[in-house]
Amino acid sequence: MANYTQDGLFNCPAHPPRGALELTLDQKACPQIPGSVRLFEQCLSKSDSNTTLQALLSNLDWQQPYIRMHGREIAIPRKQVWMGDPDTAYRYSGKLFIPENWDPTVLSVKARVESMSGHQYNSVLCNLYRDGQDSVAWHADDEPELDPTVPIASISFGATRRFDLKPKNGEKMRIPIQLEDAMLLVMSPEVQMYWLHQIPKTKKVHAPRVNLTFRQVKTH
Questions:
Q1: Residues 152, 140: contact at Cβ < 8 Å?
Q2: What is the second-level CATH architecture of the domain 33-215?
Q3: Using the 8-state DSSP alphabet, how is residue 110 labeled?
């Protein structure tokens, strides 16, 4: 089970959806900030999860793109693949990403995620964190290409990594969630509007983690 280390940060309903823990992101200090996440634990068996991880590590064409930050080009501290339907090009940090064709393993995971989340997706950002030194800085998935009404669904394979949330309004509040192997995190649209999230660096993790973040890109 994910380790929630700060009491009172989560307002959990008495009867969350079967198979999921639903967390409302609020507390007395900032009760007006909307947003909720659903966590589904062990979406695949240990054997299937390990098979999936090895297939993703071996079969995806992992790249380490450069993006523009603070006026200069820098390599992101992780590897990525943008994948999806043909009309799902995606731009962030000044770079346009053209989708790769769907990989069979990713399509299999996609079907599982869609069944559990109750939403359909036409694209996915695949991230490879090779060890604890790979990370992603504070951000929100709020690019104009994304359909803001569709929750973002994120499933992880491999090493456990800490996923942090904090409000965009500057409130001194941080919510850590330990994302374990085969755990699915579904973020409501309000999370991208009012919250930031990150995967911080850590010296404690030496194994790889692959994260698949499914999104719905607006198409014309």
A1: no
A2: Sandwich (2.60)
A3: H
Q: What's the pTM?
A: 0.86
Spatial distance between the Cα atoms of 27 and 165, rounded to a whole number of angstroms: 13
Bridge-based pairing of strands 209-215 and 95-97 is unpaired
Is residue 189 classed as helix, strand or coil in its secondary structure?
A: helix
pLDDT digits (tens, 9 = 90+) for 27-67: 434 556 888 889 999 899 999 999 999 999 999 999 998 87
- Distance of CA 145 to CAs 84, 122, 132, Å? 13, 12, 30
- The string of DSSP letters for 4-53 reads --STTSEE--SSPPTT-EEEEE--TTSTT---EEEEE--SS-HHHHHHHH
Q: How far apart are CA 24 and CA 22, in angstroms?
A: 7
Distance, CA of 60 to CA of 58 (rounded, Å): 6
Annotated domain spans of the chain: 33-215
